[in-house]
Amino acid sequence: METIDPQTTLGALVNAHPELAREFERRGFDYCCGGRHSLSDACVDKGLDPAVVVSELTAAATTSEAVGWSTMGPTALVDHLESTHHRYLWDELPRMTELLAKIVSVHGVRHPELQAIATCFAEMRADLEPHMTKEERVLFPMIRELDAASSPPPFPCGPLRNPISVMLLEHDRVGELLAELRRLTDDYQPPSDGCPSYVTCFAALADLEDDTHLHIHKENNLLFPLVERMEREMCGTTQ
Questions:
Q1: Which one of 58, 91, 158, 194 has the largest count of C-beta atoms within 10 Å of its C-beta?
Q2: What is the DSSP letter of 9?
Q3: Into how many domains does the chain fold?
Q4: At CB < 8 A and 24+ separation, what contacts does 74-79 make?
């Protein structure tokens, strides 16, 4: 394939080559909330040589065509988000709460940092569940209505960029809490005396971070720009 252009945004690169999401995770590149930053800027921010990173990513980018979710329309994309990422979180958040409570009760004396981890996770769950509810009951139905309309529906909230701006702010907060969880868990590395439940818990936290980063990327860098552009075109405006 052609060499990756370092001026391409992180979000666009993941859209074109979904396998690069894991490569960005490894390097600490924020491709979800920070998906509009260029690869070059991300390298500079992390003190990495852009030429070296471009070479490594070009070798890792195995797909040459847009796949799956990256080519979906608004309705298909919100359906995908609900059935994939929302379903995952609705199932996983309660399970993780129970698992964290278990290891805090068993290992909390020797590892007091576990209480901070459990508190951070609880705060993230308290943000994510109402956030998903608002999307499923309010924003996503309006997006489906817009997609089926020939002219802009008269939404009570005004243009969809209004509720979208709230969702973006909430995504930023979730991103901050995920970063804090990674710090508190020492990059999800369980201690040497951790039991199997401890190891399972930290592995699940790492998986949750990966899935939520991709989830937010699909909304921030695909769905929301697509919907805002569609609404502007229906209104005949460019702003």
A1: 194
A2: B
A3: 2
A4: 74/143, 74/144, 74/146, 74/147, 74/223, 74/226, 74/227, 74/230, 75/143, 75/144, 75/147, 75/148, 77/218, 77/222, 77/223, 77/226, 78/140, 78/143, 78/144, 78/223
- Distance between CA atoms of residues 167 and 189, nearest Å: 31
Judged on CB neighbours under 10 Å (0-12, 13-18, 19+), 208 is buried
Assign 65 a pLDDT band (cuts: 50, 70, 90): low
Q: Which domain holds residue 153?
A: 72-235
Cα distance between residue 97 and residue 143, in whole Å: 32
Chain Cα centroid distance, residue 170: 11
Spatial neighbors of 173 by CB under 8 A, at least 6 apart, are 127
What tokens were used for 34? 């920070």
Task: Clarify whether residues 207 and 112 are in a common domain.
Answer: yes
> Model confidence over 75-114: pLDDT tens digits?
999 999 999 999 999 999 999 999 999 999 999 999 999 9
Token readout for 79 is: 């359906």
Same domain, 41 and 77: no
* C-alpha–C-alpha distance, residues 131 and 140, integer Å: 12
